[in-house]
UniProtKB/TrEMBL annotation:
The lineage of its organism: Eukaryota, Metazoa, Ecdysozoa, Arthropoda, Hexapoda. PANTHER family: DPT-YFP REPRESSOR BY OVEREXPRESSION, ISOFORM D-RELATED, MADF DOMAIN-CONTAINING PROTEIN-RELATED. Residues 14-114 form the MADF domain. It comes from Anopheles sinensis (Mosquito). Pfam families: MADF_DNA_bdg (PF10545). It comes from the Eukaryota. Signal peptide: none annotated. This is AGAP004590-PA-like protein.
């Protein structure tokens, strides 16, 4: 019987490590680069799919895309909170401690996402 991956930290730690080992899935690319690397992305998605099927045998590539989108979204939410807390540090605020246990494991995304989030926050503050 397959386990529920949502309840298994070991499964998710392994899944995230595999995701990190496949930078073609998380490195920002322009449209031309994406077209050039489409076959590599497809292969990488299938590698993650094989891992995910250990827990959910009926999973598809679309399932993996949704899982990655969810992980990415949750990571961005925590990163945004951390950035906002640092920006407000002058107000003697306590440092932000991420609530989501996967945050540190997904920190390889920081180099791609932090500059974009910081610009968005600055724009929001200017409005």
């Amino acid at each position: 019987m397959a386990t529920q991956p949502y309840d298994n930290r070991r499964f998710w730690s392994e899944f995230i490590q595999l995701y990190q080992d496949l930078p073609v899935l998380w490195t920002k690319m322009d449209n031309e680069e994406e077209k050039h690397h489409k076959h590599l992305r497809d292969r990488a998605l299938n590698i993650l799919l094989r891992k995910y099927r250990d827990a959910q045998p009926a999973a598809t590539v679309n399932t993996i895309k949704k899982v990655l989108k969810s992980l990415h979204s949750s990571y961005l939410k925590e990163l945004r909170m951390e950035i906002l807390q640092v920006r407000m540090a002058d107000n003697d605020c306590k440092p932000y401690e991420p609530q989501w246990w996967c945050f540190e494991k997904l920190n390889f995304l920081r180099t791609q996402e932090e500059p974009i989030l910081k610009q968005e926050i600055i724009k929001e503050e200017g409005n």
